[in-house]
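Title: Prediction job returns without error message
Component: structure pipeline
Severity: low
Priority: P3
Assignee: unassigned

Description:
Job completed but the reporter wants confirmation the result is attached to the right record. Sequence as submitted:
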Amino acid sequence: MTVTVRFAPSPTGYIHIGNARTALFNWLFAEKHGGRFVQRFDDTDVARSKQEYVDGILADLEWLGIRPDRVEYQSRRFAAYDAAIEKLKAEGLLYPCYETPEELELRRKIRLSRRLPPVYGREALKLTDAEKKALEAEGRKPHWRFLLPNFAKSPFETERTEIHWDDVVRGRETVDLASLSDPVLVRADGTYLYTPTSVVDDIDMGITHVIRGDDHVTNTGVQIALFRALGSEPPAFGHHNLLTAASGEGLSKRSGALSIRGLREAGLEPMAVASLAVLIGTSESVSAMRSMEELAAHFDPAATSRSASKFDPDELKVLNRALLHEMEFGDVRERLAALGIESAKAEPFWLAVRGNLDIFADVARWWRIVQDGPADKSGLPADDLEFVRSAFGLLPPEPWDGSTFRSWTDRVKETTGRKGRPLFAPLRLALTGLSSGPELADLMPLMGREGILARRP
């Protein structure tokens, strides 16, 4: 059996870091088991689903390093859902209900007042054909509920019916079907809810493992019952903890909070985002992984905490810097070339500046400084101007290497009597326009003697 997982967002907005956590958990699980990853779009909400969100989600997944083996759309599979619904109706497992939301709410309050669990009492099962016709004559259209297998003889005499599964993340889990209302599978307008379409898809697509957020734990008991009602054994399930914003608020596609699109446009590295999205809220220490293969080696779904985890963008920035500071030249060769950085200087330039980057786009600023000098050359205090002019007059002849800066500043110190910060700070300011940055010993050979003399104030 080939492990097959799926990621099934609704294309009603761009995915956020919490959605990415689910996608990554599934992708890494498939990677560790030599499995397959199905990208499914739950796009039955025609009014809100948009192609731009489909394209955006696929682009975000590609950026993270997730490349689906198969892409499916629920909007193209209504015939399969229709067949499953008709099968359930024919077997008496799906029954019509005519209550209005107000009537259901009143019944719920009555049950609570009697200290009874607020579950649906299956009153619709008692309706005669004549009563159903009378309700329909009033203009009522039925919604359809799935009859849970939580009774021995009479559906009005429920008994504890435990559904067990070994959760990939949480371990042994149990749901009592007697504690639940029969779920609505078909709305009064004839549209399907999430549960039947998802179960039919999982059956038809051969999904072996469903890994998702722990807000679906209770749903799992119902879905396992529905799998069996449709003649299929359920897949394995796993439920990871949810991520919240640093404030503790839940994440939402509608609000755009911490969207992958936004993080990508902010210049963050995909592996920094993936590392934090996966490792936060687990027993693994959170550190920047250099590749999906390395992240997969550290990924253990069973090591995930049961409590929600706060996603702090500041922590993401720390990981991003750590990743860039250790990144090898071979990893960025093409990206540097795309910025027009000379191939002959690209490697020493990268090694010189990588330790000063917050995001990769910062290299463009450092390349401009190396090539053209400070944008503003008026930053030197008056008392340092003469010193810097004298120092520039002491530049050694080329060729230059990593030792040139030391030999130059030794000569400047000997000639001017300056040392320490009064010597180095003005030189850095004259060469780069900044008070801090990469080692000048590494930058000088890249700037060249002619380039540095052009910066003489």
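Comment from assignee: result matches the submitted record. The CA atoms of residues 38 and 70 lie 5 Å apart.
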